[in-house]
Each structure stands twice: as structure tokens, then as C-alpha cells.
Amino acid sequence: MADIIQRPDIMNHQGLVNLRCGAYLGRLCLAGVIAFALLLSGCDDSGGAYLLSAKAKEQWEAGHYADAARNFATLAEVHPDHELAGEALFWAANLYQYYLNQPEEAIRYYQEVLVRFPNGEHALNSRENLASLFEQDKRTRHRALQTYQQLLLAEELKNRRDEFQFKIASLNLKMGVMDQSRYEFRRLITEYPNSELLPEAYYLVGYSYFLEERHPLAMVAFRDTAKLFPKTKTANRALFFIAEILEEQGKLKEALREFRNLKGKYHNEKILDKRIRTLQSRMRKGVR
Fold first, then answer.
1. Which pLDDT score, from 0 to 100, does residue 247 have?
2. How far is the C-alpha of 184 from the C-alpha of 187, rounded, in Å?
3. What's the predicted TM-score (pTM) here?
């Protein structure tokens, strides 16, 4: 965030008026700020916008997030054509998203950035944050999917295309569209062979089959994960599911061996120990 505008050393009449305007603006509610700003005769348009921006940033740093968000919103409404208007909308949205936990207001201001400043410096970040907000609500996940597809095509973000491709695949998985999810994961594997997301993509292909109880296909995908990315946490998760499938198939000795091989490697030792004890108990009782 840019440094807050400092108090000028030389105080002429105009400077005194501007400082008084800034102090007064900080005490008004949103409606009052707008009305007052429109009637200002002592602050020119440019100076008023900078004062509002400085005041909002000062409030942000002081922890007065709601006041800061209102002042940013006011700046964009009172000075719609000012160079700070797009930035102000973006910061207002950020405050509502990350500090005030008001996603609907955040969505509103991110969308306003895209409508009013579609080619501005904050447009892509606004679109990405919108996708994240849409993803959090089951009712709007289809909108998140559309937004990530738009980001995938952005030339400025071409170095992150594997990340957006992964998001698209994962969202389809969350939405229960399994075939499309697997298609998107395999597209990531094919088109971005050097991506750090490859282990997770292989694993989630197997997990999608597991959710559908298509265990033979899940086993193939999980074994590929373990073989291609050995000694990784993702490989260990895949091996855990291999053991679980073997247990469900009644292959208890094989399942026990797989579980035991994960000792000291799996991220949740308590769950692993519990599964081993349960399996040993079943074997002693002859329960398949």
C-alpha cells in the first residue's frame, strides 16, 4: 500500500482547508461523506480524491476497516473518473473480503471494478478474487468455474495456467461432475507436464474413481501416483487408499502390509494406527 500523504510543512490557506476537509471526512458516515464531498468548494476534485485515499489508508492501518472501506467507496463514487477510482474500488472490495467478512459487498465492488475498469491494473486480481469468493458458496460454484476459464485465457497470466486448469478440474470434482473433472485433470497432465500440481492431479483422478466406487480404476490411478511421485505426501495418501480398497475387497493381509508400510510416512499416524488395529482385530476374528 502506498504511503499515506504527509502533512505539508508550509501551511497556506488552501492546505489548511484541505486538511480540515480530510479530518471532517473521516468522521462522517458514507452518505454524509458523499453529500459533503459534492459540496466542497475549498477542495478541488483531484485534491479531494487524494485526501480521501490517504484518509482511507490511514484508517486501514489503524484497524478501522469499515470506515476505510466506506471512504474508498466514496472516492470512487464522488470522483468516478479519477485515476484512483479503480484502485479505491479494489481496496474496498479487499477490505470487505479479507477484513470485514462481507463477501456480498466484496463481490459487488470487484464486479464494479470489472464493469468500470475492465482493462485497469486491478481487473485481473479482481476477477481472481471473485472466482475465490464464488468458489466458497455451492450456489455460485458454476460462476467460479466460468471465471477461472476466463483467467485461463488471460495472456498476462499464462505462467499460471496450470493453476487455473487445476482449479477448473477441482471445481468439477466438488460439483460431482466426475467425467469432466477427470478430463480437466488429464488435460493438465498433458499440457503442463512440468507443473508442480501433477502429483495432486494424478491422485484426484484416482479419488474421483474411488468416490464412484470404481475401485479397479481407482487402484490404477493411485498406483500411478505412488510410482511417478515416490516419497511424497501425495504418494502416501494414494497408498493409504490402495490399502483401504484392498481391505474392502477382503484382501486383508495385503491391506495390512500396505498400511504397515506407511508407518512413519503417513501424515496422520493416529488414523493409520487405528486402521491397523481394526484390521488386525478383524483378522483374528476371521471377519472379512
1. 94
2. 5
3. 0.80
